[in-house]
C-alpha cells in the first residue's frame, strides 16, 4: 500500500442478518477513524453481490445468516474477489465457527464484544497482509495447534461413520469428562456437545455413556492405562 493509499479510509461492507445489530455496527464504524462504510448486507448472497458491485477493501462478516452463511460467502468472496479481505465479526468463538471461517479465507476473526479500537486494528492488519485476530482467538489457535494428536487419531480412526469431532467427543467421554467439561475443553456450547453425543449414539447404536466407554476402548480410540 502506497503512502497516498494509506491515508484513504478503508472501504468496508457490513454483513449481518439482524437489522438492529447491522445498523448498530454501521453506526459504530461511522465513528471510527480510517473506516468508511460503503454498504450493508442482510445475508451472504447480498454480501457477495455488494462486493462485486462496490469492490470494498474489507467485509465485516457475520457467520450465521440465512440463505448463504458467512463461511460460504467468505469462500466465494475470496475466490471471486481476492482484492477484498474478510474479517469475521460474530457472536460465536467456538471451534466449529472459527476454523471453517479461517479455512474459507477469512484473515481476521473478532467477537461482537470487540471495541472500536480492536476493529480498526483488525481492519488495518488484514489490509497490511497480517492476520486480524483477537487475543482470545489467538490463544485458541495456539491451544488447537498444541493438541494435534487427539484430532489426528479421531480423523484417521473414526469408525461407523463418526465425524472427527464426534469421535473426539467420544474419546473425552471415555476419559470421564461430563458434558460441561467437554464443552469447556472444546470451546463449544453444552448444547453442541449434546448434539454430538446424540449423533454418535445414533450412528453406533449406543444407549448410554458406559456403553460409549466400552465402545471407545473396543475400537481402539482410547488405550487402556499402562499397568
If you average the pLDDT, what whole number results?
83
Beta-strand residue fraction: 5-15%
Number of helices: 12
Cα Rg: 21 Å
Which shape, going by the Cα principal axes?
elongated
Low-confidence stretches: 1-5, 152-156
| Spatial separation of the terminal alpha carbons | 62 Å
Give a quick summary of the entry.
By secondary structure, the chain is an alpha/beta fold.
Task: Describe it.
There is one protein chain. A six-stranded parallel beta sheet has the order 2-1-3-4-5-6, sandwiched between helices. It has twelve helices and six strands. Residues 1-5 and 152-156 have low confidence and may be disordered. The longest helix is centred in the last third of the chain and has 15 residues, at 190-204. Helix 2 (19-30) links the parallel strand 1 and strand 2. The chain has 227 residues and is an alpha/beta fold.
Give short descriptive properties of this protein.
six-stranded parallel β-sheet, single chain, alpha/beta, elongated, 227 residues, disordered N terminus
Task: Give the SSE map.
Blueprint: H1 3-7, E1 10-15, H2 19-30, E2 35-41, H3 44-54, E3 58-61, H4 70-80, E4 85-90, H5 95-104, E5 108-111, H6 116-127, E6 132-133, H7 135-145, H8 148-157, H9 164-174, H10 179-186, H11 190-204, H12 209-218
Parallel strand pairs: 1-2, 1-3, 3-4, 4-5, 5-6
Amino acid at each position: 500500500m502506497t503512502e497516498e493509499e494509506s491515508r484513504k479510509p478503508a472501504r468496508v461492507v457490513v454483513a449481518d442478518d439482524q437489522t438492529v445489530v447491522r445498523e448498530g455496527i454501521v453506526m459504530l464504524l461511522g465513528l471510527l477513524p480510517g473506516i468508511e462504510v460503503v454498504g450493508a448486507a442482510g445475508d451472504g448472497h447480498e454480501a457477495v453481490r455488494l462486493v462485486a458491485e462496490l469492490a470494498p477493501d474489507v467485509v465485516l462478516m457475520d457467520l450465521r445468516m440465512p440463505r448463504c452463511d458467512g463461511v460460504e460467502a467468505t469462500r466465494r468472496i475470496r475466490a471471486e474477489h481476492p482484492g477484498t479481505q474478510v474479517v469475521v465479526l460474530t457472536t460465536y468463538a467456538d471451534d466449529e465457527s472459527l476454523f471453517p471461517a479461517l479455512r474459507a479465507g477469512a484473515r481476521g476473526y473478532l467477537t461482537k464484544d470487540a471495541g472500536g479500537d480492536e476493529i480498526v486494528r483488525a481492519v488495518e492488519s488484514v489490509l497490511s497482509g497480517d492476520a486480524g485476530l483477537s487475543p482470545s482467538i489467538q490463544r485458541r489457535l495456539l491451544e488447537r495447534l498444541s493438541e494435534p494428536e487427539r484430532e489426528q487419531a479421531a480423523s484417521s480412526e473414526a469408525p461407523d461413520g463418526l465425524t472427527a469431532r464426534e469421535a473426539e467427543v467420544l474419546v473425552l467421554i471415555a476419559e470421564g469428562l461430563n458434558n460441561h467439561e467437554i464443552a469447556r475443553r472444546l470451546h463449544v456450547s453444552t448444547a453442541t456437545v449434546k448434539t454430538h453425543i446424540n449423533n454418535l449414539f445414533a450412528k453406533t447404536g449406543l444407549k448410554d455413556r458406559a456403553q460409549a466407554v466400552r465402545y471407545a476402548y473396543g475400537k481402539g480410540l482410547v488405550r487402556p492405562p499402562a499397568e
